[in-house]
Automatic annotation (TrEMBL):
Name this polypeptide is given: ROK family protein
Keywords from the named record: Carbohydrate metabolism, Xylose metabolism
Record function comment: Transcriptional repressor of xylose-utilizing enzymes.
One GO process term, biological-process aspect: D-xylose metabolic process
Domain of life: Bacteria
Family listed: Belongs to the ROK (NagC/XylR) family.
InterPro entries xrefs: ATPase_NBD, ROK, ROK_cs, WH-like_DNA-bd_sf, WH_DNA-bd_sf
Length: 405
């Protein structure tokens, strides 16, 4: 047998430790002896790893369990509240910050609207908000890491935001900026990629290793999980669903293409259609809901109008459903996912939209790919990006296997 090098040994120790911690998380309270059996690791290795995990505060002793004769074994349990994660979710309209525990439960959060800031102004706004938020954190030594999620093309390894057309972010070394400022390990991830990890790890789609998470809001994007791995592509740009073509003509998009899905279904496209409908004299309950102040119409009011059966809003919703369904059938044919999750300000809490999409997909999809495919709302609603940020940190620091729970 080849002699093990020092680096290999350290990796084996780390993997053993992750496996033990994952097992305590998923199957605890559990005794050391059961851990050794279930992980197929020697009792002495388990004992030293557990001692380390207790000392660092990731695991605690619960008391005695059932004995099969002799002294009752001490049980171990995961201690999720001794450490915390900071998640920052940048969207095209807001910056949200949260402190979460190691089970991705949000302990506190705050939101700052982005009002036209672009480029460096966005980064400055984010660091100012982060400074304020971190002031209220207990002991930063207990911070397991910071995750920033952002729409657009992200190089995860380098922690650089390559491109976001709406916020005008171009090659921003976000990981370096934050690590230098706070001295804490930081990860940058595309928002939809983080959210698909959250669904698989903590949401209602734990059974699907092939999963697509679609965001429809200010922008349109997708996180694509293929055999439990986030599909990134060669430059981190995979999943730019909003910039796939659903028409060979149409207005030119900021990305350079024409006929992009985003320009047919994003909130600004929907809002333009609402305003055009009102201007052409169509009656709509939206006029009452916004009390005549059309600039106050937000996705929440539009979804309320759909719930009330407003004809103008229903017509627009139907157009959105048709365009999105064309795109979703393309995704089914390319990736054959086990489930589709719909999120974003236009799709979340919009059951009429989801029902119409299901019907269109059933009509247009290839039988073997569409039969029985769930098209579901997200598990976390507006918190998906924050929980996604925590999922990114957890999968990195503990090497949590997505397949295990
Ligand atoms: Zn485009």
């Amino acid at each position: 047998m080849k002699q093990m090098r020092k680096g290999d040994l350290k990796l084996v120790q780390e993997l053993n430790r992750s496996m033990i911690l994952n097992k305590i998380r998923g199957s605890g309270p559990i005794s050391r002896i059961s851990l050794a059996k279930e992980c197929s690791i020697s009792p002495s290795t388990v004992a030293s790893a557990v001692q380390e995990l207790i000392k660092e505060g990731y695991v605690s002793e619960l008391g005695a369990g059932k004995s099969s004769g002799g002294r009752k074994p001490i049980l171990l349990q995961f201690a999720p509240d001794n450490h915390f994660i900071i998640a920052v979710a940048i969207t095209n309209s807001s910056i949200e910050l949260a402190e979460l525990n190691l089970e991705a439960h949000i302990k506190r959060k705050c939101l700052k609207p982005v009002k036209g800031e672009t480029g460096e102004e966005v980064i400055q706004l984010m660091t100012e908000e982060l400074d304020l938020f971190m002031q209220d954190c207990r002991d930063l030594e207990r911070c397991a890491g910071i995750a920033v999620t952002v729409p657009g093309v992200v190089n995860v390894e380098k922690g650089i935001v390559y491109y976001n057309s709406k916020l005008r972010l171009d090659h921003v070394p976000l990981k370096e900026i934050i690590e230098r400022r706070y001295g804490l390990r930081t990860w940058i991830e595309n928002d939809a990629n983080a959210a698909v990890l959250a669904e698989r790890r903590f949401g209602n789609c734990g059974e699907y290793p092939d999963l697509i998470y679609i965001v429809v809001g200010d922008g349109v994007g997708a996180g694509i999980l293929v055999n439990d791995n986030v599909l990134r592509g060669s430059s981190g740009g995979a999943g730019e669903f909003g910039h796939t073509s659903v028409s060979r003509s149409g207005i030119r998009c900021e990305c350079g293409n024409v006929g992009c899905l985003e320009n047919a279904v994003s909130w600004s496209a929907v809002y333009s259609r609402i305003v055009a409908g009102i201007t052409s004299g169509r009656p709509t309950v939206l006029s009452e809901l916004c009390r005549g102040n059309f600039s106050e119409i937000r996705p929440s009011l539009y979804k309320e109008a759909i719930r009330l059966g407003d004809a103008l809003s229903m017509d627009i919703n139907e157009e959105v459903a048709e365009h999105l369904s064309a795109g979703i059938v393309n995704l089914l044919n390319l990736f054959n996912p086990g489930a589709i999750i719909m999120d974003g300000s236009l799709a979340y809490d919009n059951p009429v939209l989801l029902e119409r999409i299901r019907e269109h997909v059933q009509r247009r999809g290839m039988r073997i790919l569409k039969d029985g495919i769930p098209i579901k709302p997200s598990s976390f609603g507006t918190d998906g990006n924050l929980i996604g940020g925590a999922a990114v940190v957890l999968s990195q620091i503990f090497r949590f296997s997505l397949a295990e729970s």
